[in-house]
Amino acid sequence: MRIFFVKNKKGVSLIIAFFIMVIILAVVFSISGLLYSEIKIIRNMGNSTISVSAADSGVEKVLYYDTKVFSTPTDASGDPIKIERGLCTMNLHDLQTNPYACTEDTSANIDSTEHSIYCNNSAPPQIADGDVASHSKGCDPGVCDDCKVSFDTAFDTASDGRKYHVDASIKPSADGKNSIFQIDSLGKYKGSSRKFKVILVIEKGEGAIVVDNDCIYPLSIPGGASISIYAHIVDVNNVAVSPVTAKIYKYSDNSLVDSIDLNCYTSNAYNTSTSCAEGQYANAFWAVTWTTGDTTPATAYYVNLEIKDTMGPPAAPGPNEKTVTKVPYCTP
After folding, report:
1. Mind listing the domains of the chain with CATH numbers?
2. How confident is the model at residue 116 (pLDDT cuts 50, 70, 90)?
3. Pick from 287, 276, 283: which is nearest to 309 by CA?
4. Which of 71, 198, 225, 252 is deepest in the core (most CB within 10 A)?
């Protein structure tokens, strides 16, 4: 007797089809995941490029304003003050106090125009090292050697649109021998951000202070008479010169008789009616009249000049110094 086994093969095709669909879906999802990642990377690359451009715009703006001075403030007499650098003028436009500084953007539609040259939301400049008491003039446009400015600029109105934040500062190095100009610019766009840091070190070297047309008159004077001391002084790095001190000695024994600071004038030192305003100390004329208290009939003197500039730490003299020994005699 033969026994036959009947195998029911119904449903096998469905199982095979199911496994094939699972495999196909796995492949599709894998490819989709890869494509999504690639698309996201490409999109982020585009956003990152825009962020880099925004950060670069912040750096370019600071460099532009620092070299293209926009502010012409005046002193108490209404005379214009020379600007050492444009960084310290990068605060909001004000018709009363700073009419030529960065103009605040008041445009109703800022999408249609490039506004990167404006200092929107800029805070007033502040001392870079925080020691205001010892270096209170660091942010004065006429000095501008220890100052920091911070500002934001937006290219459009969208909350995640193109924008950048900048912190820029100028301050002396710890040893006072260099001036450090630093720019930190952070660009942002749609969740992507990129930052540029630019550091420029301006070295102050020998020969920064140049003295010419220095002279004294007269060389020998009786007791109670006066000696006039003159000099034209230039700082080639355009740094404010101060102080200029005359050391007065007797020819007979080389003893120091007196020490007196010269006064700054904007025109020929023989004309002492044009006193320097702040910011005019880098290229000026200096003069002082010294009256001897000596009671001898006549005494011969010689004068040494000691000159410094302000390129130094807030609480110390600058590194650039010059001494002129035995200023020559002249006839004004």
Report:
1. 46-203 (no CATH), 209-324 (2.60.40)
2. very low
3. 283
4. 71
Which contiguous run of DSSP H or E holds residue 25?
Answer: helix 12-67
CB 235 within 8 A of CB 320: yes
Place of tokens 């702040």: 278
Q: How far apart are CA 29 and CA 36, in angstroms?
A: 10
Query: What value does the mean pLDDT take over residues 166-195?
Result: 86
The DSSP secondary structure of 91-117, one letter per residue, reads: SB-BTTTBTTSBPPP--S-TTSS--TT
Record the tokens describing residue 149, joined without a space: 């400015």
Counting Cα atoms < 13 Å in the Cβ hemisphere of 292 gives: 27
pTM: 0.51
Give the side-chain half-sphere CA count within 13 A for 47: 14
**Which burial class, exposed, middle or buried, applies to 189 when counting CB atoms under 10 A from its CB (0-12, 13-18, 19+)?**
buried
Both structure tokens of 39: 């698309």
Kindly tell me if the per-residue pLDDT of 108 is higher than 50. Answer: no
Q: How confident is the model at residue 114 (pLDDT cuts 50, 70, 90)?
A: very low
